[in-house]
Write a structure and sequence with these properties.
Number of strands: 5
Helix content: 10-25%
Strand content: 25-35%
Radius of gyration: 10 Å
Structural class: mainly beta
CATH topology: N-terminal domain of TfIIb
Order of helices and strands: HEEEEE
Number of helices: 1
Length: 58
C-alpha cells in the first residue's frame, strides 16, 4: 500500500501562517509547521489547513 498522503501534495502545501514548508508525521497523521509551532491534522487523507484546527506544538 502506498503512503496515504501523496508526496506531490505534501510538496505543494505550505503553512498558512508562515508559508514555510511542512513535514509529514505519518504516525500522528499531521503536517508539522516548525516555523509556526503548529501541527495540522490529516482527516480521511485530507489535510485540514485551518489554524483553528491545528494543534500547538510544545
Amino acid at each position: 500500500m502506498s503512503d496515504p498522503l501523496d508526496r506531490r501534495v505534501l510538496e505543494a502545501l505550505v503553512c498558512p501562517v508562515t508559508h514555510a514548508m511542512l513535514t509529514y508525521d505519518a504516525e500522528r497523521q499531521e503536517l508539522i509547521s516548525k516555523a509556526a509551532h503548529l501541527a495540522f491534522p490529516i482527516r480521511d487523507g485530507i489535510p485540514v489547513m485551518l489554524v483553528s484546527e491545528a494543534r500547538e506544538l510544545e
